[in-house]
């Protein structure tokens, strides 16, 4: 039996195929649940990051945004400022240690990406091996 339709299928598909501009252009999806809206926004902002538009992501995501979006902003900060990686990694480790948000799949994915950039593969695997989503 088919479940409810996946409103984010085309957006995810464009993102996973590396068609980042198409993902951004086709992201105006009405009537999404709050969780789907956060996932949509995280995919759109990750598309901007993939295109090198770090500052746009940093400027648009404010401190009141949901945890997954804060994690995406942290990735943009990490990639945009190679001289301040320690601060970003410190914030990331604090968030991962917080039981209220540490199990968020997008936060864990961003942790895996950042720790892979740092060549800390054990730490990257520690946060991504539990799965839960296609990307983990």
TrEMBL record:
Protein name: Coatomer subunit epsilon
Main location (coarse class): membrane
Source organism: Gossypium armourianum
Keyword Cytoplasm attached: yes
Annotated membrane topology: Peripheral membrane protein
Role of this protein: The coatomer is a cytosolic protein complex that binds to dilysine motifs and reversibly associates with Golgi non-clathrin-coated vesicles, which further mediate biosynthetic protein transport from the ER, via the Golgi up to the trans Golgi network. The coatomer complex is required for budding from Golgi membranes, and is essential for the retrograde Golgi-to-ER transport of dilysine-tagged proteins.
Localization (cell): Cytoplasmic vesicle, COPI-coated vesicle membrane; Golgi apparatus membrane
PANTHER family cross-referenced by the UniProt entry: COATOMER SUBUNIT EPSILON
GO MF annotation, one: structural molecule activity
Keywords, ordered alphabetically: Cytoplasm, Cytoplasmic vesicle, ER-Golgi transport, Golgi apparatus, Membrane, Protein transport, Transport
Any one GO biological process: endoplasmic reticulum to Golgi vesicle-mediated transport
Gene Ontology CC terms: COPI vesicle coat; Golgi membrane
Pfam families: Coatomer_E
Record bears the keyword Translocase: no
UniProt superkingdom: Eukaryota
Family statement drawn from the similarity comment of this UniProt entry: Belongs to the COPE family.
InterPro entries named among the record's database cross-references: Coatomer_esu, TPR-like_helical_dom_sf
């Amino acid at each position: 039996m088919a479940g409810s339709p996946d409103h984010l299928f085309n957006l995810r598909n464009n993102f996973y195929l590396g068609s980042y501009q198409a993902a951004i252009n086709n992201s105006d999806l009405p009537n999404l649940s709050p969780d789907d809206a956060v996932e949509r926004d995280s995919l759109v902002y990750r598309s901007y990051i993939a295109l090198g538009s770090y500052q746009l992501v940093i400027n648009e995501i404010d401190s009141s945004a949901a945890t997954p979006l804060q994690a995406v902003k942290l990735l943009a900060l990490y990639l945009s400022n190679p001289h301040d990686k320690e601060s970003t990694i410190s914030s990331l480790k604090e968030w991962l240690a917080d039981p209220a948000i540490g199990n968020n799949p997008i936060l864990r994915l961003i942790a895996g990406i950042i720790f892979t950039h740092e060549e800390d593969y054990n730490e990257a695997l520690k946060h991504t091996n539990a799965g839960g989503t296609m990307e983990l």
